[in-house]
Amino acid sequence: MKSTHRALGAAAAFVALTLASSTSAQAATWAASSPATASCSAPNLFASWTYGKYTFNNDVWSPCGGVAAGAQTIWANTNADWGVWSDQPNTGGIKSYPHIGYTVNRTISSMSQLSSTISATTPAGGAWESAYDIWVGNNAHEIMLWLNYTGTAAGCGNVKPISYNWTAQGCAIPVYTNVNVGGATWNVYRGNNGSNMVYSFLRTTKTNNTTIDVLAILNYLKNLGWMADLVVGDVQYGFEITSSSGGMNFGSKNFSVTVK
Description:
A hairpin with a 2-residue loop joins strand 4 and strand 5. The protein has a single domain, classed as Jelly Rolls, CATH 2.60.120. The chain is mainly beta. Helix content is 6%, strand content 44%. Mean pLDDT is 92; it is low at 1-24. The protein has a nine-stranded mixed sheet with strand order 2-3-6-14-8-9-12-11-10, covered by helices on one side. The chain has a six-stranded antiparallel sheet with strand order 1-4-5-15-7-13. The longest helix is centred in the last third of the chain and has 11 residues, at 214-224.
């Protein structure tokens, strides 16, 4: 269900500027489009662009896992102004994770602050989550913070977290519920995607606008004994899209990461 393509990137990705399908992208500083395809070698699946300390990636990874993806265009002006237009088919499986990333490269204990701010716009339909993806310990641990999503905090609906345990009705079972940490209340899920451990925090009150104390969440996981004092790699934020049939727009404003 999950892929580490998002964190590892694709060094061989073909990058090209292009006009976007979204009117917001027409005047963008950078934009790249990938076609509807089932081929992992299609152009711009992993198109990327660097702006200061931030890196953007189109990250249409499902064709590399055998699931056909629809057309997608990512665009960006700055870390505080970027978005994506995506037309993913109404089929099962995550198709893409267009995102912005910031490399931390610090151990958990060496930081006094690791926080991030986001303000997003998301569509009413489709199947997706607006989420942080934080990679720790050379990508052995993946922490997902679901801020807004089309499923439910109880692990049901059309998007669900990775979990070791499931109900007879097909809903993920949280390990902990109503955990207050990092500036919000979450249901916490634990599982493995075949490549790495995944800890999913589903915000019990969905939002598009927030500031998160990421360090507090990492220390919470460390105190549980789920991971050690490891190096934090990338802090990513984006939109994990399962379906957005007909084309839907996602936008991100005011994104920043603070490390001390």
